[in-house]
């Protein structure tokens, strides 16, 4: 993930946050109430391809249509806002929730798509290499 363009407005700091990855799953529109709807997208983020992360993003209200233009398997770049809120249960225990709210999505193609997938050196099996001249004390 990369963080870009921080600027101040009043006492708040706004940052444009972007991430590139592969669309793993897209939900249908979820109607939460008469006045609120959302849609979820799971992004496969593979900073280390051996251990990909599956990150849930959501689009709300009229932005649910943003996900209409992408398909599972597409390489994309998402611009999103980080939201957080507390919730207190009946016993008085407060839990905090974070939400990644998408406001822009770009489908990557050609060189952009290749660039979004990280490249790593081929793994080497070090257990098969035996060097008796190693005199390190550990």
How many structural domains? 1
Full CATH superfamily name:
Nucleic acid-binding proteins
* Helical amount: under 10%
Mean pLDDT score, rounded? Answer: 81
Structural class comes to mainly beta
- Main sheet characteristics: 7 strands, antiparallel
Beginning-to-end CA distance, first to last residue: 36 Å
Q: How many DSSP E strands? A: 7
Q: DSSP helix count?
A: 1
CATH architectural arrangement = Beta Barrel
Spatial extent as radius of gyration: 21 Å
Strand content: over 45%
Query: Per the principal axes of the C-alpha atoms, what is the gross shape?
Result: flat
Task: Give the CATH class.
Answer: Mainly Beta
Residue runs with pLDDT of under 50 for 5 or more positions:
1-5
Elements, N to C (H/E): EEEEEEEH
- Reported by name, the CATH topology is OB fold (Dihydrolipoamide Acetyltransferase, E2P)
Would you mind describing this structure in some detail?
This protein is mainly β and 138 residues long. It has one domain (2-115): OB fold (Dihydrolipoamide Acetyltransferase, E2P). Helices cover 4% and strands 53% of the residues. It has one helix at residues 111-116, and strands spanning 2-9, 12-26, 30-33, 36-45, 53-60, 75-88, 94-107. Strands 1, 2, 3, 4, 5, 6 and 7 form a seven-stranded antiparallel β-sheet that branches. A hairpin with a 2-residue loop joins β3 and β4 (36-45). The longest helix is centred in the last third of the chain and has 6 residues, at 111-116.
């Amino acid at each position: 993930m990369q963080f870009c363009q921080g600027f101040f407005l009043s006492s708040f700091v706004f940052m444009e946050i972007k991430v590139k990855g592969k669309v793993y799953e897209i939900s249908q529109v979820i109607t939460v109430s008469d006045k609120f709807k959302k849609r979820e997208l799971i992004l496969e983020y593979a900073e280390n391809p051996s251990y990909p992360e599956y990150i849930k993003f959501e689009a709300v209200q009229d932005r649910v249509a943003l996900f209409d233009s992408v398909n599972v398997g597409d390489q994309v770049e998402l611009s999103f806002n980080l939201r957080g809120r507390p919730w207190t249960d009946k016993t008085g225990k407060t839990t905090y929730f974070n939400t990644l709210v998408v406001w822009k999505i770009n489908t990557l193609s050609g060189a952009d798509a290749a660039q979004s997938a990280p490249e790593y050196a081929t793994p080497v099996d070090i257990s098969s290499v035996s060097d008796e001249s190693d005199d390190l004390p550990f």
